[in-house]
Structures are given as C-alpha cells and as structure tokens.
Amino acid sequence: MHDATRLTHGGRDPKRQQGAVNPPVHHVSTVIFDTLEALENKHRLPPGSMTYGRHGTPLHHDLEQLMAELEGAHGAVSCCSGLAAISIALLSVVEAGAHLLVADNVYGPTRHLCDGLLARMGVQTTYFDPALGADVARLMRPETRAVYLEAPGSLTFEICDVPAIAAAAHEHDCCVLFDNTWATPLFFRAFDHGVDISIHAATKYVVGHTDAMLGVVSGNERHAASVRRTASDLGYYAGPDDVYLGLRGLRTLAVRLQQHQHNALALADWLAGRPEVAAVLHPARIDHPQHELWQRDFAGASGLFAAVLQPVARERLAAMLDGLQYFGMGYSWGGYESLMLPVDPATTRSATQWAWPGPTLRIHAGLENVDDLIADLTAGFERLAG
Ligand SMILES: *Cc1c(COP(=O)(O)O)cnc(C)c1O
C-alpha cells in the first residue's frame, strides 16, 4: 500500500463506527466494568480497548497504529506535545549515571531538557558537531546510552549522515533517537536508516492547521514497549479532541506536503537571487553543504527553511517584518499559513560555531499562492532598504 492510500484508509474502520467515515471521539475518564471478572481481566483486552481515560481510547490507538505503519515502526504512542514526545524518548533510554550524545543542531528545548532535568538526574550530555558522521564513535563511553539526532535541524537545516551515525552507535550498543518532525514519516523513513526511536512534534505537519498540540513517539521492536511504558509512567496523555485533529490532519498530509515543498523551494530559489540574502539554508538546493545526504536519504523536503540576510540595522529588519501581509511572525510551523521568524542559532549551539553575521530568518512556506508570497517579500525588501 502506498502512503497516500494508507493515509486515506488507515486508522479507521467504518464497520466499527456504525458506517461513519471518521472514528468517534470518546470523552472519558472512568470506564465502567460490568463484572468483577471483567475488571480483573482488563489487561487482557485487545489494544485500543478502554480501561481508563489516561490509558487511551480507540481513537488514540487508530492514530498510533497509522503513524507506526507509515513509519515502519513496531509501535507508536501519542502524547500531549512534541516536547513531551522528546521527554518520553529520552527518559525511556537513560538511567542515573548514563551519558548521551546529542547533535549540536537540535531543537532548543531538547537541550534545556538535557542540561536541566536530565543533568539533575545524573545524566551527562555531550553535544557534537552533526557533520562528524561515523566519527561520533570517538565520543562514546561505556555508559553512553543513546545518540540523539535531528535532521535537518529546525533552525540551521544541517543534515547528518544518519545511517553512518546509527551504525557507529549500534556497534557500541547505543540506540539512536531521531526528531523526525521536519520530514514526517512520508519524507524520511527513520527506521530504514537505523533509527531506533523516532519523535514527532505532530503539532506541526500532522495536525497541520495550527490548532492543536500533539506528540508521537515510535519505536522499533526493541524499544516500542519501553517507550509506551515511559509515556504511561509520565501520564503524558493527549486529549481526544487533539488526537482527532491529528488523525484528521494525516488524511491530507501527502497533498499538503507537496504544496509546502513546492512553495518553499520556489521561495528559496527566489531568495537566493536577492542581493539582501547572504545564504539560503535549504537541503533540497544544490548549494546546501549536505545536499547529497538529503538526496540519498530523504524522499522530499517540507516547507521549513532559512535565509541569512546581509548584516542590517535592527530598525530596517523591523520595518521589513512588521509590515508583512501574509508571513506571520510566531513560533511553531507546519500549518497552512506562511511564517517568518528571526532566530539566533548561535544561542543554541555549544560544540560548533554559527559563523553568519547577519540575521537569520526562519521561513515556513504555507499553502498560499507563491506569487502572492513573493510579492509580500518584495515589498518587505523595499522596506528593509528604507
Ligand atoms: C516544535 C518542535 C518540537 C516541539 O513540539 P511542541 O509540540 O511544540 O512541543 C520538537 N521538535 C521540533 C523539531 C520542533 O520544531
């Protein structure tokens, strides 16, 4: 079955739903058991059965099954945000005294978690240059439990050699955790590239409409059960309405991603020709330093990339950003709307340096007509010039 067909027909069963195309939403905490025997045998019920609200509903099971199938995982678990998914993944593999290797380009809150809560629990983190590839083996210690990757990084868009790093990690009996939010299961088959636990901020493209927070963690055969156990221990339950929005978002993921990809590449190519732009950071462009890795391992590019401007005064940048008509300035991405956010990658790195002097703009290409977006940016550059 191709992904588009799976997205349409997976994770639902009209026969189970009195013929309704979409599955119902259960708002539930208490579940009543008819008999003492039923209560005592609740653990023997098939997956997706309701026993208590926090343990999930058939809808949770539908979303988790569909995500696991799309990604080629053994199992997946939903949770209340992308950051909760990151916490579940990390906490499922560490213990006091453990050591983690984390790529220097990861999402900022991942670093906060490692440097704060995990450090307090006695877990040490070493950040490494994602360009190291298999040489990451040099940083491994007997107590190293996992290598954590994100490709491309959501601020700087570096791609790392996932299969090479995974091979080195497995040789040292370390597992590989991968934040797959940018590519989604459609554009990066994490488990085919040696990943053991894959993390999704489903808030982004899965939900796709900027109206819910949701996370999904999936694991291979070795890790799926401990991931589920950790999610359950933490009580990171995703509300049923948000799960519904995630499942509904998945139905259109393939077509939305095609348009995000098309618009982002058109904007990236146009920006690369502008004198105000020092560099465009988009892995699907041939001038990207790891373009070949992207081409080898990824099936497509989503709508998020960055442009580094030539150094410019803050008031001029403000004039450009404040007057944009279609590009909203705000956090998160993956919705239908375009966004532009000034970011400072230098503040979320420690093993490598960020060399660009000018401001970095992270751009999410939404589903608008790309000519309208380019007209908005053209007017923005006029304001930038003053
Ligand atoms: C947004 C984001 C997250 C966190 O997701 P939330 O749902 O906002 O908690 C994790 N990883 C990446 C790459 C993200 O962009």
The largest beta-sheet arranges its strands as: 1-7-6-5-4-2-3
Helix content: 25-40%
CATH architecture of the largest domain: 3-Layer(aba) Sandwich
Predict the CATH topology of the largest domain. Answer: Aspartate Aminotransferase, domain 2
Q: Give the total of beta strands.
A: 11
Q: Quick one: CATH class of the largest domain?
A: Alpha Beta
* Straight-line distance between termini: 54 Å
Explain this structure to me?
- The protein has about 375 residues and is α/β, with parallel strands linked by helices.
- The protein has two domains: about 5-250, Type I PLP-dependent aspartate aminotransferase-like (Major domain) (Aspartate Aminotransferase, domain 2, 3-Layer(aba) Sandwich), CATH 3.40.640; about 255-385, Aspartate Aminotransferase, domain 1.
- Helix content is about 35%, strand content about 15%.
- The chain has 13 helices and eleven strands.
- The chain has helices spanning about 5-10, 35-40, 60-70, 80-90, 110-120, 160-170, 185, 225-235, 240-250, 255-270, 290-295, 315-320, 370-385; strands at about 75-80, 100-105, 125-130, 145-150, 175-180, 195-200, 215-220, 275-280, 305-310, 340-345, 360-365.
- The protein has a seven-stranded mixed sheet with strand order 1-7-6-5-4-2-3, sandwiched between helices. The chain has a four-stranded antiparallel sheet with strand order 8-9-11-10, covered by helices on one side.
- Strand 2, helix 5 and strand 3 (about 125-130) form a beta-alpha-beta unit.
- The model has no long low-confidence stretch (mean pLDDT about 95).
- Bound molecules: pyridoxal-5'-phosphate.
- Pyridoxal-5'-phosphate binds near residues 83, 86, 154, 179 and 215.
- Pyridoxal-5'-phosphate (PLP) binds next to helix 4.
